[in-house]
Amino acid sequence: MKEYTIREAISIPYFDHDDSSLRKTIQNSSSRRKMSPMRFALRKIRNIILSRWSYRCPLNKFRVRWNRRRGVTIGENVYIGLHCTIDNAYPEYVYIEDNVSLAGNVTILAHSNPYGHFKNVVESGVSPVVIKEGAWVADGAIILRGVTIGKNAIVSAGTVVDKDIPDCALAKGNPMKIAADFSALI
């Protein structure tokens, strides 16, 4: 895989959507991202279109290509299954290395942006998600922000990944547990 620099985790303001005006919403969101409202709006529209195409496309090469265009860092020989959702707001915080396989219906979230009344319960922020070389993520898994899935690791179907998984480990369940270490077999 080509060299890449993993972005630093950042705090973001709690959700403050203003339903009174689309213009205000775009201005608030663009100022948080430190970009012009026009650039933010065009980027958001492009991101929505490419993510929807990728979600439904039957051809893997286009799913990979369109997610790269959204800003996801994706290595070579990567498989992204049908109906996968890769963070809709911060795709540039997702890193998928070479020879990774994401089965269908996998969700990857790089951000959490709850309403302000949850301030004392959960942090609002963006953190990188890194899926290392050779990992396999099975159907319906959910990968939360700030997680690294190790080299050649396996994430079982339906698992909610809320902490790092070491290399050559099998993770399963909700809450997630490391079920096996198969490093001696590889």
How would you describe this protein?
The structure is a single chain. It contains three helices and 17 strands. The longest helix has 20 residues, at 37-56. With 186 residues, it is α/β, with parallel strands linked by helices. Helices cover 23% and strands 22% of the residues. It has one domain: UDP N-Acetylglucosamine Acyltransferase, domain 1. The protein is globular. A six-stranded mixed β-sheet has the order 3-6-11-14-16-17. A four-stranded parallel β-sheet has the order 2-5-10-13, covered by helices on one side. It has helices at 22-32, 37-56, 60-70; strands at 10-11, 73-74, 79-80, 85-86, 94-96, 101-102, 107-108, 111-112, 125-126, 129-131, 136-137, 142-143, 148-149, 154-155, 160-161, 169-172, 177-181. Helix 2 packs antiparallel against helix 3. The model has no long low-confidence stretch (mean pLDDT 95).
Structure, briefly:
This protein has helices at 22-32, 37-56, 60-70, and strands at 10-11, 73-74, 79-80, 85-86, 94-96, 101-102, 107-108, 111-112, 125-126, 129-131, 136-137, 142-143, 148-149, 154-155, 160-161, 169-172, 177-181. With 186 residues, the chain is α/β, with parallel strands linked by helices.
Task: Offer a few descriptive terms.
186 residues, alpha/beta, 3 helices
